[in-house]
Amino acid sequence: MSLPTGPLARRKGGRALLAVAGACAAVVALAGCGSGADRTATVPPTATGSLESLAAEVKCAPDMQTDADEIRQALCKNRAGRFVLATFATDRGQREWINDAKDYGGHYLVGRKWVAVGDTGVVTSLRGTLGGDLEDGTDHHAHQG
Fold it and tell me: Taking Cα atoms as reference points, which of 94, 21, 33, 87 lies closest to residue 55?
């Protein structure tokens, strides 16, 4: 598997961003395809805050993997399952990272300057606490022939 080589990967701190993308790819691989859970349940206002405060909201003790100026990323596990939680210094940095990471598939819960990545059931469960928007990565199963 290759990692993203887009604009963020080339900028200062790109290695940290590549590490996060790799971690997300690992979570996606471990999580499987997802459960097809209801994605239209009542959604609270989108949470804001530090990685630690977001993790506390969803009852996760974050295992910090990357602590850089542009991005902070942790592996998390709670009753819903395993996921990656990342916070970003800028909206643009977040969007560039998500656009690159979506090539690896997966399911993304996106808030302002944060993202959670895991299987469908996990991000749907997290959305019930954190709010945010659900986004899907590339479905590689559709490309099998």
Answer: 87
